[in-house]
Give the backbone structure.
Amino acid sequence: MITGVGIDIVEVKRMERWLDNNRLLERYFHSEEIALASARKNSAALALSARFAAKEAFGKALGTGLTHITLKDIMILNKENGKPYVLLNGTAQKAFELSGANRVHISLSHERDNAIAIIILERA
């Protein structure tokens, strides 16, 4: 049963400005996310934009927003085949458990100017 759906869009220019501010990146992204995005060189801003949109979408899917959730506790990573997945820690894991959901589905997409993410929470 679906327990929540969240969607968000981020303008890539916003992340392009953030790339020069390590403190800002480290505030919102886990070091592993930053490293993976940095390895993408010219598309780092696209990768971070999609991940930031996914974090926002996660809060919307919870129905509570991101209040009391540390954004670094929501990690958006990729499997070897490129498929994105969500890894939750700390405050995000606690909020997820309180929601009653036990599965997270994610889809990311981006173009030159925008990135979008959808999160679906499910209780099996």
